[in-house]
Write a structure and sequence with these properties.
It contains 5 helices and 5 strands. It is of the alpha/beta class. The protein has a single domain, classed as NAD(P)-binding Rossmann-like Domain (Rossmann fold), CATH 3.40.50.720. Strands 2-1-3-4-5 form a 5-stranded parallel beta sheet. Strand 4, helix 4 and strand 5 form a beta-alpha-beta unit. The longest helix has 13 residues. About 20% of the residues are buried.
């Protein structure tokens, strides 16, 4: 028997921005979450403030700025995932004061960076 959540999964609103990998969407859906919005880009602060009011979980990359103004309006936000190297785009003090868990995936881009470096090395023209 699967253990339940304290809140129905279909009522947990998830926002994934900046082209977060489709595997994230698949994982959420496979675990029963259905209220998921996926956007290819980041949002300007005013649009993000309007949208984040009903969001419980947000997944971002490096362009989205979860500023103090944004975090102050994130009334339902439980967690923010930064699918990039750092968390400098998140107002950590504001997140902490609102009880929002913040995490990142610092090694998610390591392989891509290594491939790019090798590609540039191979493509160097000695002339």
């Amino acid at each position: 028997m699967e253990s339940g959540t304290s809140y129905p999964k279909d009522k947990i609103n998830i926002l994934l921005l900046e082209g977060v990998h489709p595997q994230a969407l698949k994982l959420f859906r496979n675990h029963g979450y259905t209220s998921i919005e996926v956007l290819k880009g980041s949002l300007p602060e005013e649009e993000l403030i309007a949208k984040i009011k009903s969001v419980h979980l947000i997944g971002i990359r490096s362009k989205t700025q979860l500023t103090a103004a944004v975090m102050s309006k994130a009334e339902k936000l439980l967690a923010a995932g930064a699918f990039c190297i750092g968390t400098n785009q998140i107002a950590m003090g504001e997140a902490t004061s609102h009880g929002v868990a913040v995490f990142n995936s610092p090694y998610s881009n390591t392989r891509s960076v290594a491939e790019m470096v090798i590609g540039h090395c191979i493509g160097i023209n000695p002339d």
